[in-house]
Amino acid sequence: MTSGSNPTREAVLGGPAVILVEPQLGENIGAAARAMLNCGLTDLRLVRPRDGWPNERAVAASSGATAVLDGTRLFDRVEDAIADLEYVVATTSRERGQIKRILTPRAAAVEMRERWSRSAATGVMFGPERTGLLNDDIALADAAVSVPLNPAFCSLNLAQAVLLIGYEWFQTGSEAPDRALHLGHTRQASKAELHNLFEHLEAELDDCGFFSTPDKRPSMVRNIRNLFQRAEMTEQEVRTFHGIIAGLTARRKPPSTGR
Amino acid sequence: MTSGSNPTREAVLGGPAVILVEPQLGENIGAAARAMLNCGLTDLRLVRPRDGWPNERAVAASSGATAVLDGTRLFDRVEDAIADLEYVVATTSRERGQIKRILTPRAAAVEMRERWSRSAATGVMFGPERTGLLNDDIALADAAVSVPLNPAFCSLNLAQAVLLIGYEWFQTGSEAPDRALHLGHTRQASKAELHNLFEHLEAELDDCGFFSTPDKRPSMVRNIRNLFQRAEMTEQEVRTFHGIIAGLTARRKPPSTGR
User: Fold this and answer.
1) DSSP code of A16?
2) What confidence category does residue A6 fall into, taking pLDDT thresholds of 50, 70 and 90?
3) How many CB pairs under 8 A join A and B?
4) Residues of chain A contacting residue B177, judged by C-beta atoms under 8 Å apart
């Protein structure tokens, strides 16, 4: 199937559509567009925005997310705004008494990413700022999404809600490692380089009488070696530390052999 | 050790401290306080806020997060703001050429939660809105945190950055299931109730001649049963569906026996 023959292909490319139902403030639409683009989302759909469209305040608040605002589509009915989508989730901040699957943003992102990977178009609906989605709108969705937050203070503004959903969406596709050691132009020290440093240090410590209790030398050496192991030193840092040891011991050497 | 004798205990209770270094706009401080309280964080520390402290605009933007603003502490130096903490991460939006561990917000939250669970105080530093943290401030931290976002459009405002870090912190402590089926006052149907519904439906379908090809009856029955299985029906919905079948077949019954 070519992309032209698949009516949902356009929606799929930019990730899930974001459907704002009756958004009130242009600022919030613009901030939502910014949050979307932060997360690589570009398909914004508005259902009956209170102040009409286009909206100057939305542009001002978007911080340059024009790629999203320029492609924003307007709809009169929620049904039309989601007609081309196969899987839609509805954000809710409170329990609505409907028999409905409730997902965390993380689980919703996983559901949408799975569908995206097989070119199925998905979307996330957000309600008006003060009231949230109507129950009838929620009933149009496959599942509800609720953000686990401090129950005593859980109100998010519209753009922040969009950001959290978009953030989780982006993470499901991100290849960034959870933990990385930035090494710049150097490299991690080899064990041989590290052992050489240990021996240099320990020889100097022997020389200056640091190990006053011979019994304790083995465990003290282990502790010192573990400290340096934890630091995950680079080869540059190993060389720097050889210099530090040389510099510190120079003051201790007999003046006749030093400068 | 009692809580009184542990100088870091206060910091531990409210989760990681949020340290805003030279924040410029009061609005951003207030919005950050709101995002903190959304995520159950209460320990806000300001280093040289540009417009002084307290700040009316911060109060207005906090949407009532006074619990955070009232306890906010002021510091002249970053070193003093983090003095009581054992583990500190520094948020950065770009690579700084330092040999440094770089964590995602999720990994940073795991690191902080692990320390929190053994009463070790932690914190997250955020730099000024336009420039971010100084390299010297980053060097005071145990690790850097960078949010994986659309590299072509990755600038977040201060409160959004605080929200994403706080959100991940809250998730590490949240017991909310990733997926749940909200059942209201009803309960999931038992398999016996579901089988009873299947038999009711299939008997009526036999009766009306729906299964025109006997060969295909077994696979059609399986498809229909799978559809209802996927819906995870409640016992109320099973009863409703018995009523739907009865209602639909009533129109088909001979008029003499109907009304």
Assistant:
1) S
2) very low
3) 136
4) 104
